[in-house]
Amino acid sequence: MKIIFINKFFHLNGGSETVFFQERDFLLQQGHTIVDFSMEDGRNLSSPYAEFFVPNTSYDSSGGVAKKIQQAVSFIHSSVAVRKLEALLVQEKPQIAHLHNIYHQLTPSIIPLLKRYGVKVVLTLHDCKLVCPSYLALHNDRICNACVGGKFSKAFTVNCQNSKVRSLLLSVEALFHKWRKSYDGVDLFLAPSQFLADLTTQRISKDKIKVLHNGIDVSLYQPNYNDGGYCLYFGRLSREKGVQTLLKAHGEMVSHFPLKVVGTGSLAEELQKRYMKVDFLGYQSGQALIDVIAGAAFIVVPSEWYENCSMVVLESMALGKPVIGSRIGGIPEQIEDGKTGFLFEMGNVTELAEKMETLVNDSVLRKEMGREARRKLEEQYSLAQHNKRLFEIYSALLDKRI
User: Fold this and answer.
1) Disulfide-capable partner of 109 in 77, 175, 247, 322 (CB 3.0 to 4.6 Å)?
2) Is 270 exposed, middle or buried (0-12, 13-18, 19+ CB in 10 A)?
3) CATH superfamily of this structure's domain 2-215+383-398
4) 230 within 8 A of 300, measured Cβ to Cβ
5) CB within 8 A of 20, min separation 6: which ones?
6) Are strands 209-211 and 231-234 parallel, antiparallel or unpaired?
7) Cα–Cα distances in angstroms (integers) from residue 293 to residues 86, 132, 201, 235, 299, in the given order
8) Domains 2-215+383-398 and 218-380 share a fold
9) What count of other Cβ atoms lies within 10 Å of the Cβ of residue 159?
10) Superfamily of the domain at 218-380
């Protein structure tokens, strides 16, 4: 099988890239031919197809009017990406294209090109982009469904970016690809959660969407059902992640149980100044991150946006940790309330504090939930199962069974 893997980043930039490289590595190990298409970047991993990558593009407010107009056009339709990809298709003739994060730098304009060359197209949905031009489904730090149902002009009329220019650009981008029917060329959409699959049916036919949970290589994680006497948050320090709710809840706890926070982001400096008793560890990765997760009593995922299939939850489960998470997006599919952790109402400081106190005061329950979390991960979220199902999907597409 020859598959072209397409993602605008060819380095680890977030959860979507983790999934991208996991799938790519598996297929290479199975002897399949993988063709890469991405964007140039000094952080990129090595690829034999790097000469076909599009120039690095970042969208900022600098430059004159001409530059801004050019950026706006390429934000919607990248003629460079279309041209470079066509040259790659002519040379390699792949059977399947698997698209991940393509927006803005590569653009959905590459999808009609792939169909013209007879390539089967799979697109993994890592966020809400198909129903929300800004992909976050947030406005003023609150959940926003104004554009659901294809009402993409709402992004401009409600000024979802708090910038008329940026909001207009997102509206125009979404309306352009709706008018052009760019996504009609996708043979199958893969949703890592049932929640996102259901949300996307507001735009895409239900029979073109399949749920394929993110997977994690369980063999790389040794569960630790003991702990070092602290709770943990790890992830981006930004408003939609609900870190402020967690910090307020921690401040209300009677037990004064230690909290460690791993990550960086727009709120990092502000939060460190305000919450002096919390241990902010900054950015951690690799074994250092695994060690701090393994030492935690439990993990808190207080998200206040539509999480899809959280890799934070999966990594915590892999290490045998109970997770307390917001009852929103795909999180309730991952956490069995009262069995592998607890769910709480998004943004509810008091309820979160109560759930944290429950785990702080019951080490036996923590261990029981940690074992159940690991069991569920092995049964439903193993990378082996994910990859097996992915290959079955590819085969069905080529055999015209999908």
Assistant:
1) 77
2) exposed
3) Glycogen Phosphorylase B; (3.40.50.2000)
4) no
5) 5, 7, 100, 101
6) unpaired
7) 44, 33, 36, 12, 8
8) yes
9) 15
10) Glycogen Phosphorylase B; (3.40.50.2000)
pLDDT tens per residue across all 402 residues of the chain: 999 999 999 998 877 898 999 999 999 999 999 999 999 999 999 999 999 999 987 755 555 555 566 777 888 889 999 999 999 999 999 999 999 999 999 999 999 999 999 999 999 999 999 999 988 888 887 888 899 888 999 999 989 888 898 899 999 999 999 999 999 999 999 999 999 999 999 999 999 999 999 999 999 999 999 999 999 999 999 999 999 999 999 999 999 899 999 999 999 999 999 999 999 999 998 899 999 999 999 999 999 999 999 989 999 999 999 999 999 999 999 999 999 999 999 999 999 999 999 999 999 999 999 999 999 999 999 999 999 999 999 999 999 877
Tell me which amino acid residue 5 is: F
**pTM of the full structure:** 0.89
Cα gap 124→63, rounded to integer Å:
34
Domain boundary assignment for the chain: 2-215+383-398, 218-380
DSSP 231: E
Assigned token pair, 376: 């569920």
Residues 6+ apart with CB under 8 A from 66: none
Q: How many residues does the chain have?
A: 402
Residue 82: burial class (beta carbons within 10 Å; 0-12, 13-18, 19+): middle
Contact between residue 272 and residue 279 where contact means Cβ atoms under 8 Å apart: no
The sign of the dihedral angle between the CA atoms of 13, 15, 16, 17 is positive
The encoded tokens of residue 96 equal 């399947």
Structure tokens at 302: 């207080």
Where do runs of H (alpha helix) occur along 216-361?
243-252, 268-274, 286-294, 311-318, 331-334, 349-360
Amino acid type, 39: M
AA identity, residue 109: S
